Amino acid sequence: MRPDLEARLLARAARSQRQGRLPSLAAGVVQAGELTWAAGRGTVDGTREGAVPDADTQYRIGSITKTFVAVLVMRLRDEGLLRLDDPVGRHAPGTPVGDVTVGQLLAHSAGLTSESPGQWWERTPGAGFDALASSLGQEHRVHDAGVRFHYSNVGFGILGAVVEARRGAPWVDCVRREVLEPLGMTRTSPMPEPPAATGLAVHPWADLVLPEPTPDAGAMAPAGQLWSTLRDLAAYSRVFLGLAPEVLAPETVEQMATPGVVDARPSGWSGYGLGLQVHRTATGALLVGHGGSMPGFLASFLVEREQQTASLVVANSTVGLDGSIGADLLALVAEHEPYVAPAWRPATEVAAADLEIAGPWYWGVTPLAVRLTGPDTLDLLTLQGVGRAARFRRRGEEWVGIDGYYAGEALRVVRGADGSVTSLDIATFVLTRAPYDPPELQPGGVEPPGWRTV
């Protein structure tokens, strides 16, 4: 990384630590899956003589833990061991909210209460899942399921139980076996392992600090228990950069990063996918990841897949970390050391049957075009500024929409008696090589004699 960019990144991190009155802050940047910059400010115990944090200092990462649980759930889905539309009670019996779905819990759209009943769970030792399940009643369904976004820590406590039921092992063991070990993450754990920062609260009106408790949250641990380091989080970012298919398929990451419900509070565009927060910045960058907050700790984990970068920020304070630092670090990298895409190369082979469908098409009078983008992918492009664009991926004899209006819909290639391509059919929308022609293929027909002057 260039020294001038490093200086800008350090200045941004230093400003955040000082203005936020954070006992310590550690920040890092990932480029193409590698930690290329890291810096620490302050001291890990809040004293003047304490150690300055580095890339191997542990901090509690709070709700970034939820992304690990989401990865485990999506791996179960990919293996066919559950479906996202399964009622959660099918996999975690004993909860009175068992009719909400696994997908709704991942997306915080199940309508459940935000916190578990009883004392503030983040500062008190937690009990097992049976105790959590028995504490929940119909009064803890604060919204109708599937109607709106409502952040629920309880929902991820339940998802942790789903993982344990399907795997037959504690969720933290599943995290270690399925995520940490494949990625070489040796400094991520459910409880702190030295060197680790001390969780601290800073007095709002004086420069004083107070240690915060860091108990085991029990059944609520999947909502925010894990501790990690910049170096480990850098390795973890590879999952969401599409560089760790051994952990999660890039297609599954794409699904997780697609916002299904929107958090309407922020002034910027913000939503929530499946276990991931999604944000479109004012400059057009699409960031996915998660924030983290537990008493004594704050964290930010953001990935910009187009630039193949990630920002990592951890601090040991209950409040004070400004919400823009993660995006700001990524913006600095994009401005001063932008990602250089690999050179384009011609395809080694294109199937003749695929080439037949390339080029212009018309849905009625709307001009579109098919462009082959890979051996198993194509783009449906808009022309003249109208129409619906989408990307498709081959699935058997069909092509299935990845995004846009046609996400999940099948594109079928229709052939005539002689085997030549006559049309494309996308969810009953017929595309032909000429506007409303041939007439016999058009739903509703074409009034003879066809096109005319007025």
UniProtKB/TrEMBL annotation:
PANTHER family: D-ALANYL-D-ALANINE CARBOXYPEPTIDASE (PTHR46825:SF7), D-ALANYL-D-ALANINE-CARBOXYPEPTIDASE/ENDOPEPTIDASE AMPH (PTHR46825)
InterPro entries to which the protein is assigned, alphabetical: AmpC-like, Beta-lactam-related, Beta-lactam/transpept-like, DUF7586
Pfam families xrefs: Beta-lactamase, DUF7586
Organism: Motilibacter peucedani
Membrane-crossing segments per the record: none
Signal peptide bounds: none
Lineage: Bacteria, Bacillati, Actinomycetota, Actinomycetes, Motilibacterales
Gene3D superfamilies noted in UniProt: DD-peptidase/beta-lactamase superfamily (3.40.710.10)
Domain Beta-lactamase-related: 17-333
Protein name as it appears in the record: CubicO group peptidase (Beta-lactamase class C family)
Domain DUF7586 positions: 352-433
